Amino acid sequence: MQSFVDSKQYEDGDRFTSISDFKWSIHCGAEIEFDYHGQLYTIVRPEGHINIAKAFRPDTELESDDVEDILNYRMDDGKMLREVLTEVTDVIRTV
């Protein structure tokens, strides 16, 4: 019997399957952490706003009330979050 830790489900964890999946999580108030090319990013909801940034790097912060702005956030490689959303790994989300 395969253990939960070894299962594909665990590897995929809470990875996003689509932009709609991401939008649903944001709409539900999720706070999210993920890895993209070895960099940890966080999405938090201070005072009802949506905030994305590299972890511990406030100079990379984007705050908005619009999920589309968050999806247009530029990653280090110049791609927008919306372009790489299904590629991010180690996703942890509260919803």
How would you describe what is shown here?
With 95 residues, this protein is an alpha+beta fold. It has one domain (8-93). Helices cover 24% and strands 25% of the residues. It has four helices and five strands, in the order H-H-E-E-E-E-H-H-E. Strands 4-3-2-1-5 form a five-stranded antiparallel beta sheet. The termini are far apart.
Question: What is the beta-strand fraction?
Answer: 25-35%
Unreliable runs? 1-11
Net shape: globular
User: Structural class, from secondary structure content?
Assistant: alpha+beta
Main sheet makeup: 5 strands, antiparallel
Comma- or semicolon-separated keywords:
single chain, alpha+beta, 5-stranded antiparallel beta sheet, 4 helices, globular
Structure described in brief:
This protein has 95 residues and is of the alpha+beta class. Helices cover 24% and strands 25% of the residues. The protein has helices at 8-12, 19-27, 67-71, 81-84, and strands spanning 32-36, 39-44, 50-54, 62-64, 89-93.
